[in-house]
User: What shape does this take?
Amino acid sequence: MSDIAAPAARTAARLPRPAPWWPAPWSTRRTLQTCLGLVWLLDAALQFQPYMFSRGFVTQIIAPTTAGNPTLIAAPIAWSARIMAQHIVPANTAFAVIQLAIAVGLLFRRTTKAALAASIAWAVAVWWFGEGLGGVLAGASPLAGLPGAVILYALIAVLLWPTEAPSGPLGRRVPALAWLILWTAFACYLLLPANRAPGAISQAFTNMTSGQPAWLQVPGHTLATLTAGHGQAPAIALAALCVLTGAGIFAGRLTRPALILAVLLGLLIWTAEGFGALTTGQATDPNTGPLLILLAACFWPPRKRPRTIGGLNDGA
Assistant: This one.
């Protein structure tokens, strides 16, 4: 028996171990692609709102993204905003149709790859011309939507690209490095002086409550009351949790707790974002909170199955 067991054990040891940060099973990846398609469908529906066909969409949503950005970034935004304002109806119709086409493409398997490619290109363009790079160069806070929801669409699309498996150690680790960079950046921005000022955290939870139903304002006002006058301590605590979330994915046993923490932080951020202001008639997307939750789902490790050698279970 030992002569048989030894080669089997050596063979099992040589079998590749799944990278826990890669969305491995195709069935799971297809489900996540569908979820991404539904988010794009929501974006398309929001883009068809009457407000988006008015000049207010340009003057109150697009143009303000130039604030805090260097001229190299702000000037093209201002230029495109002027053109959009002059032709707002056809321009917004085109925006909505593009997003609808991406959504429909993601919902059908044969067009998934083309839709993912289109979503990446469109997301990068909107990140610049529609979100001003999400406040990355302006010192924005994650609680205010940093780094911009649309760039998370692009990252998720890359992770969900139809492929059998990542190639080589580098291919398996690049997604994890992107995750680490994202959450570490959250921690760094939370620790900026402006974002840990005495009223910064409290104000973040009340900024997006205007125009929302009273019941949706309750969570934000509650958290604002709890953090009132305590900007630095909550900022440091949130930054520490972001670091744990980013680093935890590299430790096998801590992967799932780190992802659960990411979901909880995503819900907290979404609360600060006023749940995307979806009820105001002026929202263009659900904001970063739900995207962070979907991103965490992309990294959820598959269940480990017993390894088999020659059709026999190792434990047999």
Observations:
- The longest strand covers residues 308-309.
